[in-house]
Backbone:
């Protein structure tokens, strides 16, 4: 990949994060002003959540640009894991915001602050709900186009924000009819619980990828289908290892090929297998090692790993 193409790809993948960052800042300011005008802890909690969203998307924007840099001498497998590191940092920041919201909610319980201008709060919340839905849809499409774990995580987070907005909306609607000072901090705690749940899921996913977890089952199946699609003289495989780093996948396997096939033909078959895998899973680096089949019974190097034959 040349420098120009790398730069264009990085800009294409990072642009959604930048757009959503600016949008989240606008929402955070709007909610903050609404919280100040209404005295709502739940709306303040949602404003803090949006500020965290903006910070997260900023981290994603930086990570996506760096992750697209080509492999170099110090990073021969590329920079894709920075996306997962960004997810780990985001999870910790989200968790911190959730703890802060719980603290503010308990302050609200003690002070029993009454809400003001509930109609204004309803209008602000409805506007932010529509915006969050638009962000989630936009990021979901971008994550699918660019196969980006960072954008996918962002999309899930904005989707979960819809529940937060519904909770805030419920606060103002109930206040019009009931006017209980306990409704607002109660909903704020519920929002905080949802935020902490999101943080925990993102923490697990990011840690999972940083520890070189294997590809998803559907992706592994695509690799298996690619190997088996050639038929004889390809007889099976073993020691299939997979992992992911940002948008890039890495696959290696030992493929068993009839022992009487020439070296030149074996080389051609290995290249075919690699191309078949790359066609099914774009942005995949494949390493195939060919083993003779059947193995000689007295071969001291024969494998005892689980095998799969076709």
Residues:
């Amino acid at each position: 990949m040349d420098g120009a193409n790398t730069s264009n790809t990085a800009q294409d993948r990072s642009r959604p994060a930048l757009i959503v960052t600016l949008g989240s800042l606008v929402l955070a300011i709007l909610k903050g002003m609404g919280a100040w005008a209404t005295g709502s802890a739940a709306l303040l909690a949602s404003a803090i959540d949006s500020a965290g969203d903006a910070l997260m998307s900023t981290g994603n924007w930086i990570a996506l640009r760096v992750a697209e840099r080509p492999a170099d001498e110090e990073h021969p497998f590329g920079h894709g894991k920075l996306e997962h590191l960004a997810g780990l940092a985001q999870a910790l920041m989200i968790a911190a915001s959730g703890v802060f919201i719980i603290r503010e909610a308990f302050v609200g319980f003690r002070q029993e602050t009454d809400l003001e201008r509930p109609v204004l709060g309803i209008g602000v919340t409805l506007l932010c709900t529509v915006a969050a839905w638009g962000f989630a849809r936009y990021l979901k499409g971008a994550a699918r186009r660019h196969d980006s774990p960072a954008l996918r995580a962002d999309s899930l987070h904005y989707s979960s924000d819809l529940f937060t907005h519904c909770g805030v909306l419920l606060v103002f609607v109930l206040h019009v009819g009931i006017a209980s000072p306990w409704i607002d901090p109660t909903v704020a705690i519920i929002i905080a619980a949802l935020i902490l749940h999101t943080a925990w899921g993102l923490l697990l996913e990011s840690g999972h990828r940083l520890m070189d977890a294997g590809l998803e089952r559907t992706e592994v199946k695509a690799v298996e289908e690619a190997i088996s699609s050639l038929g004889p003289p390809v007889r099976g495989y073993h020691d299939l290892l997979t992992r992911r780093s940002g948008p890039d996948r890495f696959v290696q396997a030992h493929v068993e090929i009839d022992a009487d096939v020439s070296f030149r033909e074996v080389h051609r078959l290995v290249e075919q297998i690699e191309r078949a895998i790359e066609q099914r899973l774009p942005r995949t680096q494949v390493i195939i090692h060919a083993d003779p089949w059947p193995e000689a019974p007295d071969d001291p190097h024969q494998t005892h790993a689980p095998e799969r034959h076709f």
About this structure: The chain has a mean pLDDT of 79.
